[in-house]
Design a protein that fits this description.
By secondary structure, the chain is α/β, with parallel strands linked by helices. It contains 6 helices and 10 strands. Helix 3 packs across helix 4. Bound molecules: guanosine-5'-monophosphate (5GP). The site of guanosine-5'-monophosphate has 20 residues, from strand 2, strand 7 and helix 5.
Length: 192
C-alpha cells in the first residue's frame, strides 16, 4: 500500500535490533486518516470472507483493529497480556514471545468472546518473528472458530514470521513488506 510505504519512508525511524519506530503515526500518536485507508484496504482484501469478528492483541493492534472493524461492521476482541488471576476454564490462553521486549508472556481471551461459529480476521500492526500471530491463531483454533486470515500493517520480510505463519496455512495480507532496512534510514520494500 503506497500511502503506508510513503509514510514509513517519511516518518519511520530504524532503531538498533531491527526495530522500526513508527510512533508518530502508528504506535503512539495515531494518524486516523491513515488508519482509515488501512482499514479500507483490509476490508477490500477480506470482503468476501464473511468476517464476524476481528481479533488483535493489546496494545498497539487495538487502534488499527477498531478502525478496520468499522468497515466490516463487526466487534473487536483484543487478547490481554499477563492476566494471572483468571479462573482456569473461562479463558483461552497461549504464549507469545515479545519481539520488542524479549520476554514471554501469556495472552488471554475470555471464551465467551470467541465462539465456534465465528469467522475471525486477525489484525496487528507488525509481523516480525510471528510469535504474536501464531499465539492469536492458537486462540482461534482452541475456540473451534474459523481463521479467515491476518491483516498486518507492516511486515518485516527479512524476519522469519511471514514464512512461518504462511507455511502454517494462514492467509497473511501485509500492506507494507520491508525487504531490508538499516540504521542510516535506508528502507527497501518488497513488491510481488
Ligand atoms: P512478532 O511476534 O511477529 O515477532 O512481533 C510482532 C509484535 O511485536 C507486534 O505486535 C509489534 O507490536 C511488535 N513489533 C515487532 N517488530 C516491531 C518493530 O520493528 N517496530 C515496532 N514498533 N513494533 C514491532
Amino acid at each position: 500500500m503506497r500511502l503506508l510505504e510513503e509514510r514509513i519512508i517519511k516518518d519511520g525511524k530504524v532503531k538498533a535490533g531491527n526495530v522500526l519506530k513508527v510512533d508518530s503515526f502508528l504506535n503512539h500518536q495515531m494518524d486516523i486518516a491513515l488508519f482509515g485507508e488501512i482499514g479500507k484496504e483490509f476490508h477490500r482484501l477480506f470482503a468476501a470472507d464473511h468476517v464476524t469478528k476481528i481479533l488483535t492483541i493489546e496494545a498497539s493492534g487495538i487502534g488499527i483493529a477498531c478502525i478496520t472493524a468499522q468497515y466490516f461492521q463487526v466487534p473487536v476482541v483484543f487478547a490481554k497480556k499477563n492476566q494471572t488471576k483468571n479462573i482456569a476454564g473461562e479463558v483461552y490462553t497461549s504464549k507469545v514471545e515479545s519481539f520488542t521486549h524479549g520476554r514471554v508472556y501469556d495472552i488471554i481471551v475470555a471464551k465467551e468472546f470467541l465462539r465456534p461459529e465465528d469467522r475471525i480476521l486477525i489484525i496487528d500492526d507488525f509481523l516480525a518473528n510471528g510469535s504474536a500471530l501464531l499465539g492469536l491463531s492458537q486462540l482461534v483454533k482452541d475456540a473451534g472458530a474459523t481463521l479467515v486470515g491476518a491483516g498486518i500493517a507492516v511486515e518485516k520480510g527479512f524476519q522469519a514470521g511471514g514464512k512461518l505463519v504462511r507455511d502454517a496455512g494462514v492467509r497473511v495480507e501485509s500492506l507494507a513488506i520491508i525487504e531490508s532496512m538499516d540504521e542510516d534510514g535506508k528502507i527497501v520494500f518488497r513488491h510481488s
